[in-house]
Design brief:
Blueprint: H1 3-23, H2 30-40, H3 49-54, H4 64-75, H5 77-84, H6 95-99, H7 109-120
Helix pairs in contact: 2-4, 2-7, 4-7
Length: about 130
């Protein structure tokens, strides 16, 4: 295999990875956010997080990393809620209302909790990913 063939093979591998990444819906946090949202809104009707994630009624079970992210987010939910209930002296508005509330607020509260967890308590304390934002 000469140099030109290796470049072509490398490009094919990168294209394959890119097509797999684009077939996922919305990056590494979207799946965790929808799972957390279904748990917070109680659409599972008393089902546990594990059942919602991996139960037989699921057409495609969620990834283990998404499940772990939701578990860690739920562990820190009380502290995240305390942070969101903070009211700066200068503004007198709750941080929760500034971030989550109002007409121009966040539409996906599950995603907001997951992203706040990643920023505050995550391993890298930053949002992973990249590319085009939806």
């Amino acid at each position: 295999m000469d140099f030109d063939e290796r470049i072509t093979l490398s490009q094919l591998v990168m294209k394959n990875r890119a097509s797999k990444m684009s077939s996922r819906s919305g990056g590494p946090y979207k799946e965790a956010a929808s799972l957390l949202l279904s748990l917070l809104r109680n659409t599972g009707k008393g089902k546990s997080l594990k059942t919602l994630a991996f139960g037989r009624s699921q057409r495609t079970p969620v990834s283990k990393s998404s499940y772990a992210t939701v578990c860690k987010t739920l562990e820190h939910k009380k502290l995240i809620d305390e942070i969101l209930s903070y009211s700066p002296k200068t503004n007198k508005k709750l941080l929760k209302n500034l971030i989550l509330g109002g007409d121009d607020g966040v539409k996906d509260i599950g995603l907001a909790y997951v992203l706040l967890f990643e920023l505050l308590f995550g391993k890298f304390q930053r949002i992973r990913g990249g590319g085009v934002s939806e």
